[in-house]
Amino acid sequence: MSARIRVNGVEKTLDVDPDMPLLWALRDVLGLTGTKYGCGQALCGACTVHLDGQVVRSCVTPVRRADGHEITTIEGLTPDGSHPLQRAWVELGVPQCGFCQAGQLMSAAALLKSKPRPTDAEIDQSMAGNLCRCGTYPRIRAAIRKAAGMPEEER
Amino acid sequence: MSSPVVVTRRSFLAGLNLSLGGLALGIFPDSALAAEPSAGTAKPAKESPTAGLDPNVFVHVAETGVVTIVCHRSEMGQGVRSSIPVLLADELGADMARVVVQQADGDKKYGDQNTDGSSSIRKGYDDVRRAGATARVMLIAAAAARWKVKPETCEARNHAVSHPPTKRTLGFGDLVKDAAKLPVPKKEDVKLRPKSELTRVSSASLPVLDAPALVKGAAAFGADVSLPGMLIAVIARPPVVGGKVVRVDPARALAVPGVKRVIEMPAPKRPYAFQPWGGVAVVAENTWAAMRGRAALEITWDHGENATYDSVAFRDDLLASVRAPGTPLRNTGDVDAAFAKAARVVEAEYVVPHLAQAPMEPPAAIARVEGGHCEVWAPTQHPQAARKEAARVLGLSEDKVTIHVTLLGGGFGRKSKADFVSEAAFIAREAAAPVRVQWTREDDIHHGYYNAVNAQRLRAALDERGKVIAWHHRTAFPPIGTLFGDQDRPNAGDLQQGVLDLALDIPNVRAEACPAKAHARIGWYRSVYNIFHAFAVGSLIDEIAHARGEDPRDVLLEIIGPARIHSLADLGIAKLANYGSPLTEHPVDAGRLRTVVERVTAAAKWSGRKKDGRAFGLAAHRSFVAYAAVVLAVVPDARHKVRVDEAWITMDAGTVVNRERVHAQLQGAIAMGISNTMFGGITMKAGITEQSNFRDMRIARIGDVPRKIHIDIVPSDGPPCGVGEPGVPPVGPALANAVFALTGQRIREMPFARALGV
Amino acid sequence: MPSPRVAVHPTSFIALTLALPLAVALGGCGPSTSLEPTAPAPPLRQVGPHELRVPADFEPIADVKQRSRALFLEVSRVLTHPRCINCHPNGDVPHQGMSLALHDPPALRGPDDHGVVGMECTGCHQDRNLELARVPGAPKWALAPIEMAWVGKTAHAICEQLKDPKRNGGKTLDEIAHHNGHDELVAWGFYPGADREPAPGTQAQLGALTEAWVKSGAECPPEGANQ
């Protein structure tokens, strides 16, 4: 099967097993390695991308499902790292090892698009699918608030 | 735009030392990465200029003025790439905006590259500074000669040498030609700056070197490197440690589209050390095909001697072990006599299961074996060990093996083992193609170098006033030494972690090492044996306080005793490995332990430790020669019965190089401690690990970590101590103590989720 | 007799289906909501915990209303099985497994039963089961609306709920029967993938039972009735 997927604004043709998870099509076939493999069972969120703007875990999303749709990966979030979240992430030193951070950013970006000024509870609920083994969660919260133009910590 | 770092044949042959992810601090975010949006050959990174000043292997100054600093330790999130180069640059007088950081290959010329044991700054502080100072001395000498002034009247700052009396200045680049002609000064002729002149280091907020690349997905981790013609291998490893393949039918695997080869791996022989695990590898064109191929293999296993390993039964064995006398390794006074006349005894047994590091990036390594040379890209904590192991597996001399170190998506001790590198080297040779070995998450959890499983028995004898007059500690666990030979119980080197270096103001103390067999590969996991020793000690002290009906903080400080240095004789031990640091520089200092307890409880307003439906727990611990104390506030929770609502952590780590990264490490330590204590744990049944992914080996999610974590780093001029690990051990006992204060339930076994039924 | 919670523990299925004659179950010990005399019904054919009875098994029950109630109780063996009830929670969190464990990762109902942003149900669940990844899937994977919550409810309450157009998505009884027999999400309960225990019987059997229940008057079992 030949799938046609618009990846980061560019039309791509993928001649792969239609059941191949999008993650491996992105990484192995298209060479977009910003999206990471962490668990393969939609438990960790390291593989998060947007399918037509919605957060999906690419490790379980078959290529077949993305056929005819739009995919945005971390590489396509902005051309130059200028998303307010990416800026806040750098300013607040959010990444430790950084491996989970592409997934964190993609989830956070979807959150802010839908809820420009999320409450703390909403942040925790929407980010609950993204694991961070290094434990930089407090800074993820702070950076989301900063990118949303809110004070980093509840006063 | 990012891409995998594609290494071309040309760049390999040119022998360039490519900077994978090497960046200046946020200023030149794309300087070192090949950057093509799609797969294919990419331009190699900016070459390190070869002409210039090379005083040592750590720093190079080009005539252009660009300073290249080598980071010889692996970056796994602890911030070593944001710290070592800054320290060197600060000592040199370089401007980080004109510095390029290069990651070192595995090579003895860099000294100790084993990024383990919280030692990069602790052990490397002076050497790193001296490397920068040497360059500084040579540049100043060149300027002084040109200006015909005394070197002492010059200074190096902001990437230039200046002579204040005459206001003359020359940029580093302009001095390189002359400096390069000078002999490299001897160690004794290189003076370090006074610490007050290190202005960048210890400033409140240093940038995270790789953050700009990381947030774009442009930084290269192990699996991100791509070589032309590369194949992917996924390995079916023996389900039980020491198991072997009896029979394999590869037909169905070979029938999966994209699968190219099925290769049997060499079976390891005891002692296992870091040997590959054995099993059968499926080699394919892409990762998905390799995974599907592996699932299609039909293998008959001989599970071997560990097939009877059952965690439930083994727990009984461990408890039986600590209920009988062991080998005394610490002894003062007469513990038996003191217990005989005790007014009361407080005693308990504590159990901690195996724990898995589970870094977010599962192990992966890339190898290419061509023309009698092996080249590897791997997220390894120990590149020299990886070089040795890969050479051994291939039967090559080490100089025929090159290990490039990528960024690590977390290590926590897992990636200091070279097994996954050897696997890649072996398969690359057998497949006659470059190969990435990809571990799945299930592989990582099933086939791990787990933290040792442990049981302890702790007894305290109290006099009529409740004062502790004797302390009797037994601990049983299969130690890491079992990887390398037959060790039937922990030794003094193992017990240095939280048993022998424990400051106690108690006249009669005995600690015994009790036997425990190893049925799994035992490994290092962030703070290692301190996890369970601190758990038991910190919990029992709290139990003593509650038995006395007194404030746990008061009792803790009473047991630590007055501020003083404990000599080996005081501790009742013959020697102390002291994490490889000299005792003269890093003695066992009860005063420092007291201080962190006092500071953390003041910050938490300890007097309010039980009110408004919240309760506090406190614990303190010395590890990796640093001192850390934690207060946790817990509240009831709908999902997990209890939740940590707020945390305070105070750490005395001596001189701190990158305060900002230390702050991050302490935040992370709280999360990891909560993961270990509440949710973690690896168990075996019939020798096979029962857990397989994050659904049954859970770790803390964002909602499990408190919104407010208060970090207090004790200002200090003392020699640098460990930073990456010491924050973890006090979290477990603090949580146990907080849960007890909140609910009256004393949990003595991890993970708490089991005792809480969640 | 205390009004039982709808049983979800697996062993209770065995106990209830094999051991309890229907006479005891249908109001032998407690107040009945029906005014009709409840003559003891003949015992039903014994079936294993994974097997569903068929409409013919209920023919021996002469009284139509009693037969109708018994048919619903049989249907409720499917409805209250973990594969179904996990997505009919009475709160905002789906359940998992066989013991009403809370879904992990912490999924939430969200504003329209499809999750919250960043944690949408279809962010992880596909239109079919995934074997290597273990993730269960079916078309339109989502939570049942809160008015269709079944956890913690008796068979009687579920029955009333199912019949109420205000709480069943505006369905007629025939539409309910068709839904049970043909809906893709209902189908999933019988083919859940991985090592998950399926709901008893088959979807075709569920559809037939539901039809038979509707045809017999769609009577609801009294409070206190067990399967």
Give the count of structural domains of chain B: 3
Order of helices and strands of chain A: EEHEEHEHHHHH
Taking pLDDT < 50 over at least 5 consecutive residues as the criterion, the unreliable ranges of chain B are 8-48
CATH class of the largest domain in chain B: Alpha Beta
Strand content of chain B: 15-25%
Shape of chain A: elongated
N/C terminus separation of chain B? 44 Å
Strands side by side in the biggest sheet of chain B? 10-11-8-18-15-16-17
Unreliably modeled segments of chain A: none
Beginning-to-end CA distance, first to last residue of chain A: 55 Å
Rg from Cα of chain B:
27 Å
Largest Cβ-defined interface:
A-B, 66 and 78 residues
Please give a handful of descriptors for the protein shown.
heterotrimer; A: alpha+beta; Ubiquitin-like (UB roll); DNA polymerase, domain 1; 5 strands; 36% helix; 15% strand; B: 758 residues; alpha+beta; Aldehyde Oxidoreductase, domain 4; five-stranded mixed sheet; 22% strand
Describe this structure in words.
The complex is a heterotrimer of chains A (155), B (758) and C (227). Chain A has 155 residues and is an alpha+beta fold. Chain A has two domains: 2-77, Ubiquitin-like (UB roll), CATH 3.10.20.30; 84-147, DNA polymerase, domain 1 (Orthogonal Bundle), CATH 1.10.150.120. Chain A is 36% helix and 15% strand. Chain A has helices at 22-29, 63-66, 74-77, 84-91, 101-114, 120-126, 137-147, and strands at 2-7, 10-15, 48-51, 54-57, 70-72. In chain A, strands 2-1-5-3-4 form a five-stranded mixed β-sheet, with helices on both faces. In chain A, a hairpin with a 2-residue loop joins strand 1 and strand 2 (10-15). Chain A is elongated. Chain A starts with a strand and ends in an 8-residue tail after the last helix. Chain B is of the alpha+beta class. Chain B has three domains: 9-213, 2-Layer Sandwich (Aldehyde Oxidoreductase, domain 4); 231-305 and 379-446, Aldehyde oxidase/xanthine dehydrogenase, molybdopterin binding domain (Aldehyde Oxidoreductase, domain 4), CATH 3.30.365; 311-355 and 449-756, 2-Layer Sandwich (Aldehyde Oxidoreductase, domain 4), CATH 3.30.365.10. Helices cover 27% and strands 22% of the residues of chain B. Chain B contains 20 helices and 30 strands. Chain B is globular. The model of chain B is unreliable at 8-48 (pLDDT under 50). In chain C, helix 3 runs antiparallel to helix 9 and helix 7 (173-182) packs antiparallel against helix 9 (203-215). In chain C, strand 1 (95-96) and strand 2 form a beta hairpin. With 227 residues, chain C is mainly α. Chain C has a two-stranded antiparallel sheet with strand order 1-2. In chain C, strands 3-4 form a two-stranded antiparallel sheet. Chains in contact: A-B, A-C, B-C. At the A-B interface, helix 1, helix 3, helix 4, helix 5 and helix 6 of A face helix 5, helix 7 and helix 18 of B.
